[in-house]
Each structure stands twice: as structure tokens, then as C-alpha cells.
């Protein structure tokens, strides 16, 4: 195929993985990645480092609303909605409720599994190519329960995962402590998922990706893209305070900010910032071999090369709200209840914006209004997990190859509102 100029908006892990898949293809495409701050400590850089291939169950499920109301009564609990943002969040919440129906959960799980079953086939070669393969640790994860009631509530979720080929081994409290001796008596039982893995440090991975890309002809440019316009045969990306960038194809991979560009192109999307928090403890005083998932409290602890990272929470307050770092501290205190030897001094706190859709599925595919623009965003908690696979799918579309999976479940079309058109009469089209 002819050589193309491809502009990628966003230097997070999705944008860089897409650039990698294009650069490795050997087609000679000119690839430019544009970001306001290409080396910023965003969600791609300071996440928990988990490769969550076992997570095929959506955030919404039957009965989740009752649990959510309980979580929100705790000001430092796992879920929070900032009052000034609540009205704007309402359309997202309505769609979330719809996606929580049993039939929808089954459909969404199939779509999640279709992505996740490809992850290692796409991720491992990328890690090895950029010199990071030896820092992937395939030691599984432990999901921990403090109560039998908490475990029983998740039995349908585990059944769903097993139906999609996920290995999930039920463990007693004693089993879990033999695997991770740092665990204390608060743990009642656990589930071991051996297919889970984690990397040593997301920030190091991102640096390795950037270095490989720049060494293979990819340009990484600092700038904020405000609009993407089609002027005849070319796209023009208007960069604030700078010249426009021309391209044959553009990829919107700007994380939680992607919805702004999509709407300016005329595409409706329900995308929210789900802010997460974490603390990295450089001297935790305990040894953990694998990622720990505190299933009832909705947070994790991961052993990274830079320390033990404890993170989680889901806070909806929009992109402009200030961070509440008491949430980071609260997660550390919760972790200490299950890890009694944990030392909490000297931690570094962080907060960042996860791009989250109400049905837990990312947006992957072309813009209906401008097919030369491709979308790759909305991965929520699974950006690192699904980055290489998303990049591969986007590269397939740019190369006019048939993707290995049906992309219909991830199309931005699923957020289309009813539209009225006039051809002598008014009709309502449901997309």
C-alpha cells in the first residue's frame, strides 16, 4: 500500500502501542505522536502495572447499584461522585444501568474476552522488541476476600470468567498465606488466577517505548490538538500555538480527553474520567510476589521495582476537579489491615484520570463522520493490558486488513442518540 502520514493524538500507552504496531510493519508510514506532555505522569505511567487478562466481567452487573449506594456513603470508600458533576454524569449513569442487565453483561463479557484472549500474543512481542520482555512477571494474582458473603456475591462473576477460559482456583485462607506469607488473619479466602501478570514499572515501560519509537523513525511532538478537519484529501490537526499537522490518517488515543475531539468531529460518546488514586511505598517492609486484589474493597497492591504500589478507587468528578489525596492514604490504611507488617512511611501519592465508558468496553474503530479518523480510547482500568492489541487492530484498519475480531462491539456508533432527518416527513433512526 502507499506510504501514509499517520498522526496519533496521545502519547499514553495506547497511542505509543499504536505507533509501535505501525512502525514495526515496515511499510514506511510517517508516524507522528502529538501530546500536550509526552512524558507526563498520567494513567499510563503510574498505574498498578497489572496485565489483567482475566478481567472479562464488566464493572456493571445485576445488583451493583445497591452495593454502589453503600460505597458512596463512605466519603473515602471505593466509589465517589462529586456533587457538582452529578448532573453531567446522569446520561453516563443511565447507560451504565442499562449495561448492568444480565443479557448485556453476557454480551459485554464476550467482547472483553475477545480482546483479552489476544493480549499476550500482541503484548509479549512488543515488550521483547523494546527491551522490556524480561520485566514481565507471569506469576498470577490473588483475589482476597474478608468474608464468605463477599465471596458468594462474586460467584456469578467467577462463573462468567471460567466460561471464557479463565483459570480461577479457589483457595482457603491458609492456602493464600502459604503463597503470600505477608497476609494476615483478616483474609478469609482467596481465588488464584494464574493467567494474570504484572510488569516491573509502567513508567520504565513507557520510557522504553518512546526510545524505541524515536529510534525507528517515529516523531513524538509536544502540542495540544484542538480540532481535526478534513480539507479535501488530507486531514489537518490544529495544534494550539503552532502550525497544523497534515496527515492521511489520524488516531485519537488521548485517554480521558478523547471525548472532546470526538464531539468536535460530530461523534457522540459517553466517556468519563474515572479518577484513580495510589501510593507507592519504596520500603514496604514486606515481600509480595504477585499482584493482590482486595476484591471487596476494590483496590490492589502490586510489587514493582520502585516499591509496593497500592491503588484503586473510582471517583467521578470531571477532568477539572482537584485531587483528594486522602483517598490514597485511605487505601494504604486498608491494605495494612490485611498486611499487618506493612510499613507506610515515605510513600509517594498519585491521582490520575482513567477514560471510562459505561459498558466497560473501549472505543476502537473509525469515526462515522470522518472515516480517516480512527478511535482508540476508553479502556478504563485496562489500558496497559489491551494496548498492544488495540494498536494491532488500529494498524490493521490503516493497512486495510481485516481485523482478527469483530470490531462492532467497540464502535463509537453504540453511543449514537436518536436522530431526526427530514425527507418530506420526520423519521427517527435508532442506531
Report on this structure.
This protein has 431 residues and is α/β, with parallel strands linked by helices. It has a single domain (5-421), classed as FAD/NAD(P)-binding domain (3-Layer(bba) Sandwich). It is 31% helix and 27% strand. The chain is built from twelve helices and 23 strands. It has helices at residues 13-23, 64-72, 86-99, 102-116, 119-129, 148-153, 155-163, 173-179, 202-215, 258-264, 326-338, 383-398, and strands at 5-9, 30-35, 50-51, 79-81, 136-137, 141-145, 169-172, 189-193, 197-199, 219-222, 225-231, 234-239, 245-247, 249-252, 272-281, 291-294, 299-304, 307-316, 348-356, 363-366, 373-377, 419-422, 426-429. Strands 4, 6, 7, 8, 15, 16, 17, 18 and 19 form a nine-stranded mixed β-sheet that branches. A hairpin with a 3-residue loop joins strand 22 (419-422) and strand 23. The protein is globular and about 65 Å long.
Task: Describe this protein with a few key phrases.
431 residues, alpha/beta, FAD/NAD(P)-binding domain, nine-stranded mixed β-sheet, 31% helix, globular, disordered C terminus
> Tally of extended strands?
23
Largest sheet: 9 strands, mixed
Count of helical regions: 12
- Radius of gyration (CA) equals 21 Å
Strand percent estimate: 25-35%
CATH superfamily: FAD/NAD(P)-binding domain
- Give the helix/strand class: alpha/beta
> What is the level-2 CATH architecture name?
3-Layer(bba) Sandwich
Q: Can you tell me the overall shape?
A: globular
Q: What percentage of residues falls in helices of 4 or more residues?
A: 25-40%
Low-pLDDT runs of 5+ residues are: 418-431
Mean pLDDT level? 93
The domain count comes to 1
CATH T-level fold name: FAD/NAD(P)-binding domain
Query: Which CATH top level class fits?
Result: Alpha Beta
The multimeric state of the shown protein is single chain
Distance between the termini: 33 Å
Amino acid at each position: 500500500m502507499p506510504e501514509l502520514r499517520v498522526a496519533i493524538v496521545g502519547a499514553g500507552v495506547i497511542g505509543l502501542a499504536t505507533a509501535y504496531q505501525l512502525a514495526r510493519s515496515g511499510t514506511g508510514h510517517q508516524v507522528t505522536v502529538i501530546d500536550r506532555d509526552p512524558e507526563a505522569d498520567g494513567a499510563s505511567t503510574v498505574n498498578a502495572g497489572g496485565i489483567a487478562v482475566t478481567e472479562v466481567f464488566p464493572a456493571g452487573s445485576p445488583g451493583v447499584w445497591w452495593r454502589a449506594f453503600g460505597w458512596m456513603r463512605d466519603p473515602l470508600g471505593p466509589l465517589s461522585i462529586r456533587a457538582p458533576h452529578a448532573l453531567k454524569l446522569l446520561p453516563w449513569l443511565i447507560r451504565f444501568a442499562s449495561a448492568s442487565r444480565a443479557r448485556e453483561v453476557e454480551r459485554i463479557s464476550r467482547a472483553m474476552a475477545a480482546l483479552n484472549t489476544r493480549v499476550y500474543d500482541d503484548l509479549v512481542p512488543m515488550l521483547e522488541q523494546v527491551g522490556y520482555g524480561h520485566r514481565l512477571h507471569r506469576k498470577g494474582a490473588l483475589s482476597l476476600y474478608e468474608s464468605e458473603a463477599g465471596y458468594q456475591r462474586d460467584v456469578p462473576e467467577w462463573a462468567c470468567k471460567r466460561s471464557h477460559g479463565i483459570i480461577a482456583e479457589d483457595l482457603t485462607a491458609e492456602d493464600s498465606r502459604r503463597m503470600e506469607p505477608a497476609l494476615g488473619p483478616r483474609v478469609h479466602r482467596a481465588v488464584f488466577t494464574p493467567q494474570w501478570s504484572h510488569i516491573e514499572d509502567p513508567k520504565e515501560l513507557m520510557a522504553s517505548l518512546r526510545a524505541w519509537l524515536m529510534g525507528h523513525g517515529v516523531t513524538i511532538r509536544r502540542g495540544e490538538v484542538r480540532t481535526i478537519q478534513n480539507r479535501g484529501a488530507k486531514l489537518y490537526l490544529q495544534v494550539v500555538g503552532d502550525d497544523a499537522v497534515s496527515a492521511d490518517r489520524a488516531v485519537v488515543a488521548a485517554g480521558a480527553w478523547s471525548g472532546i475531539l470526538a464531539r468536535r468531529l460530530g461523534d457522540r460518546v459517553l466517556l468519563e474520567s474515572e479518577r484513580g488514586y495510589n501510593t507507592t511505598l519504596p520500603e514496604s517492609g514486606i515481600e509480595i510476589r504477585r499482584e493482590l486484589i482486595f476484591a471487596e474493597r476494590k483496590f490492589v497492591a502490586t510489587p514493582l521495582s520502585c516499591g509496593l504500589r497500592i491503588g484503586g478507587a473510582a471517583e467521578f468528578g470531571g477532568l477539572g476537579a482537584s485531587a483528594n489525596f486522602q483517598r490514597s492514604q485511605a487505601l494504604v490504611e486498608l491494605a495494612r489491615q490485611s498486611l499487618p507488617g506493612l510499613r507506610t512511611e515515605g510513600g509517594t501519592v498519585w491521582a490520575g484520570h482513567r477514560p471510562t465508558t459505561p459498558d466497560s468496553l473501549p472505543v476502537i474503530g473509525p469515526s462515522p463522520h470522518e472515516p480517516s479518523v480512527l478511535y482508540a480510547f476508553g479502556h478504563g482500568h485496562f489500558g496497559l493490558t489491551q494496548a498492544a492489541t488495540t494498536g494491532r487492530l488500529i494498524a490493521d484498519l490503516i493497512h486495510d486488513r481485516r481485523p482478527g475480531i469483530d470490531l462492532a462491539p467497540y464502535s463509537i456508533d453504540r453511543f449514537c442518540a436518536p436522530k431526526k432527518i427530514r425527507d418530506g416527513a420526520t423519521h427517527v433512526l435508532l442506531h
